[in-house]
Each structure stands twice: as C-alpha cells, then as structure tokens.
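Q: What does the predicted 3D structure of Cold shock domain-containing protein look like?
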Amino acid sequence: MVARWNDGEGWGEITSDDFADPIWVHFSAIERSDRTASPGGYRSLHANNSVEFLAERADQDGYRWRATSVRRLEGHDQP
C-alpha cells in the first residue's frame, strides 16, 4: 500500500507486511496506464492506493529497499 506520495518530487513510500522497512518508489517504476500517465510520461500514486511491486535492496535516500516495478491494483484501495 502507498503510505505517502510527493507529486512535486515524483517519489513516495510504500509498505508491505513482507518488508520490515518502507520501500522507496520513484514515478519511473510505476507501470503506465491511461489513468496515471500524462503525455510527458509522469505517473503518480496516492496515499492508500493498493499496489503490487518488485523491490531490490538499495541505499536510496535513507531507505533500505527500492521498488523496481509498481502496479496499482484497481478497486483495492484502502479508505
């Protein structure tokens, strides 16, 4: 699930029961869809979006994990 998203900077944080730490995610890791892609290619998420993702171990801005691929799960968002 997306814990927070910064549209101005194009990155955010996702959490999962499978990881003890939050996962850093950049907009470029988000799969394109008609709803989330602008003509310039910017994609975004929103807090409480449900997602599935792949992550790799990384030292990224203080995070121990970085998402390499993120897909929003339509219809599964949390309130």
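A (community wiki): The structure tokens above were generated from the sequence. The chain has one domain: 2-72. The beta strands are 2-6, 11-14, 23-26, 51-60, 63-72.
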